[in-house]
Every structure is written in C-alpha cells, then in structure tokens.
Amino acid sequence: MDTEKAKIHPQMVDLKAQYSRLKKEVDAAMMQVVDSAQYINGPQVQTFADALKNYLSAEAVVPCANGTDALQLALMALDLQPGDEVITTAFSFVASAEVIALLGLKPVFADIHPDTYNIDARDIEQRITAQTKVILPVHLFGQTADMSAIMQLADKHGLYVIEDVAQSLGATCFYKGKDRQAGTIGHIGCTSFFPSKNLGCFGDGGACFTNDPALAQRMKIISAHGSAKPYYYERVGINSRLDTLQAAVLNAKLPYLNAFISERREVAAVYNDLLKDVVQVGLPAVREDAWHTYNQYTIRVRNGKREALMKGLEKMGIPSRIYYPLALHQQAAFGRYAPVGHGLKQAEKACQEVLSLPMHTEMSPEEAAYIARSVAGLLKEL
Ligand SMILES: *Cc1c(COP(=O)(O)O)cnc(C)c1O
C-alpha cells in the first residue's frame, strides 16, 4: 500500500503529462506556424475547421476565440429581439447564461434531472411563453441532455435549439435512428477548446457547428467584425478568431480525441466499480441513448458530509472540486432572473451534494482505484 501510494500524485487534470506524450507532433505543428508567421487566419485554421467538420459529420464549422464567444455568435446569428427568452439550465458554468444576458435577452432557468444533472425537458415545457425563442441545453460533465425530448418541444413550439457542447465534444446521442455527435442535433452546437475540455488547445479556442449553411455564413460574418469582404461591414459583429497556433495544436490533437475519451471512460469504469456499493455515493447516471465522455466524474455525496470528505481527501493528497457551488439563479449576477413561480429544487440540491473527482487522460487504473478506495474509506469513517 505504501509503495503504491508513493507513486501516486493525483491531479484534477494532468495537461503536462498529456503534452509530453504528444510533444513531437504538437511541437512540429506549432513551429510550422511560428516559421510561417501567419499568426492570424493561417491555413491551419481552415484545415482544423474541415477536420472537425468531418469528425462531427456536420455541414459547417466556424472556429472562434473561445467557447463563450461561440455561444454569443450562435445567439447573434438568430437575429433575436431584446427581451426574447432563452431557456437554459440553472446548473452550469456561467458562460451559458452570461451571453444571453449580455445580448439583452432574458435567460429563463429550468431545473435539472437529479440523476444526469442535465436540463429536464418537462421543466422546460412549463417555462415556455410567447417570448421564448431558443432552448439552450448544456451537455454537462460529458453527456448529452435528453435531445429527443428537447427537439420534440422545439418542433412543437417553433423554437431554435443551441447545444452547449463545451464539456462534451465527442459525446454521442441516439436520435432519429442514428448515433449523432453532440452539437449536431439542434440548430447550432457550440464548443470550447479550453485546455481541460475533451479536446483542449494551449490557451483559448472555440467553435460553432451547424448543418444550416445560412446560419454558418452568418456566424462566420459576425465573427469577422460583421464583414464577408474586408473593410465592408454588413452588420455589427465581433472579433472572434481561433489563433493559427491554437489551430495547429488542435490539428495535432484531434486524431486522438476518441482515444482521449476512451481513457476517460476507463477511469470512470474503475471509479464506478469501486464506488457502486458505497451507499453514501450517488454515481453519475448514464443515459441509454448516450455515449458519456466523462469530462468530469461527478459523484453525489448523500450524507451531508461532502466538505468533510473533501478535507479528508485533501489530507491524503487527493484534490476534488465542487462544480458548481451555486446554481445560476442563486448567483448575485443572475438573481434578477430567478423564477418567481416554480422553483429549481434539483439544481439547488445538486449544488449541495456534488463533488468532482480527478479525471484526465493520463490517469492509471491504480491511481483511480486509490482515489475511489480513499473516498469509500473516508465515507465509512465520517
Ligand atoms: C468551458 C465552458 C464554456 C466556455 O468555454 P470558454 O472557452 O472558457 O469560453 C461554456 N459552457 C460550458 C458548459 C463550459 O464548461
């Protein structure tokens, strides 16, 4: 046990180890950009857009500067009016709601399924009004939301669907007889290449994807200051480009995305196996129609001892994180959008109970087992 422990230094993510594995390819790709001096809109950006398009089987990919911008570009492309309502989950990273508010639209928060932490389609339906224009589901922690139910609602009420795929690139969802890539079922998918995401670059990066060529063209124009032709501006846009250097890194890493996902799934399998009989722990639920990519491995600590568990783990050198400590409507910045009527009880309860364990592509089964046994052991004592 002590020798096992001596080798094990768990980290939430291990970007350094992943880089050393891919160093040769990534360094060569980056140096090519440095040598070419085509730092903005170099050919690697289009190469990456095409490669991601193929990976996703999507009609179009529009690269941009980060995942938050991707969401903003998607919303701007829909030509919404101030006050239009966008229904999104109350339990997510802030970006999903932030861009809605920034554009003068109204975020309407819906509750989540307690088992998957993803937006609950039944709760969406009761929040639809005459002002509702968009449903913005977030595929949280690596798994898609219930897209069949969401698309059915969208069709029935004539709404757009923007999928936030920042945590789930490479996840799939069975929809209309086929496994589809997360983000290609709704009208627009938006993702992030923040270093710790499923496909991470060496800084910020993002992309929108769509099967609608008109929407793709509009997002492309908006991302380039509203211009299709340099120095002629047809609408008010923003400046949101994917750096050529980041595109080069992504070109080198995209061929490994499926392997990265398998590595995450192997860690999750060890965790699942060793934690399944621990009564105080709720395991991440896996939907039958989905391929979970485990961007996070998030458990529910059911006995109210989450903070004590975190402290105990920390003493053993095991980091853990709370994603997320407050639901979006409980945040100071978004309090004014808290619903007056029916509450968001499951989102609030999740904030009290969730705990994310270390999860990355470089973790050995021994390391995962050590972490899971430590969680189980501590919970027995608490
Ligand atoms: C990371 C993330 C984003 C934003 O990505 P950035 O590239 O950091 O702007 C958006 N939504 C969710 C759910 C995320 O996890």
What would your notes on this structure say?
The protein is α/β, with parallel strands linked by helices. It folds into two domains: 2-10 and 256-381, Aspartate Aminotransferase, domain 1 (Alpha-Beta Complex); 19-255, Type I PLP-dependent aspartate aminotransferase-like (Major domain) (Aspartate Aminotransferase, domain 2, 3-Layer(aba) Sandwich). The chain contains 13 helices and 13 strands. The model has no long low-confidence stretch (mean pLDDT 96). The structure holds pyridoxal-5'-phosphate. Residues 66-68, 92-93, 95-96, 138, 164, 166-167, 192, 194, 204, 206 line the site of pyridoxal-5'-phosphate (PLP). This is Pleiotropic regulatory protein. The modification N6-(pyridoxal phosphate)lysine is found at residue 197. GO terms for molecular function: pyridoxal phosphate binding; transaminase activity.
